[in-house]
Amino acid sequence: MKRLLLNTATIFGLAAVPFLLATSASVAQTPAASAPGVALGPADTYFVTQTSLGTPFQVDSGRLAETKGTTRAIRSYAQLMVSSHITVNRALLAILNNKPPVPPPTLLRASYSTMVSTLQNENGKTFDTDYVRGQVNYQRANTALYQYEIANGTDPDLRMFARETLPKIQDHLARALKLEGAAD
To answer: How many domains is the chain built from?
Structure first.
């Protein structure tokens, strides 16, 4: 049941990107929003809300894994997730200080809360397996999110942020896949 919740939440997150593709294709793209006060386009707004929501999830689940992970590799990866996401979030917030307010993230909030709650109640190999599987799925979805922003975003600051951050996300995915392979 717990794995089903984790997988369902992750699949929901992956499914959101194609939904955005279909939705934003029918909406005219807004002009570049580099000037303060200019509203962000739909792709940029989606990117900001989902990136903003991903940080607390990564920090909360990472802090759990720092203490509950049964291997040094998992605890080390979790520490990297916590520090990386705090740093990335600070960079994003610096960009957003010059932008109009963005609606709060809601699309995946319940899924992320459920995943963190599930991890809080797990221990041992079950915790390790669910944490690592969740990381692989999260990093895949995050890679798609950042690639979508690079290709479709209209705000040059956010597109540059996505370009600069994507290699880190791809590295996180490679590390998570390596952890998953080690667990098999």
So the answer is: 1
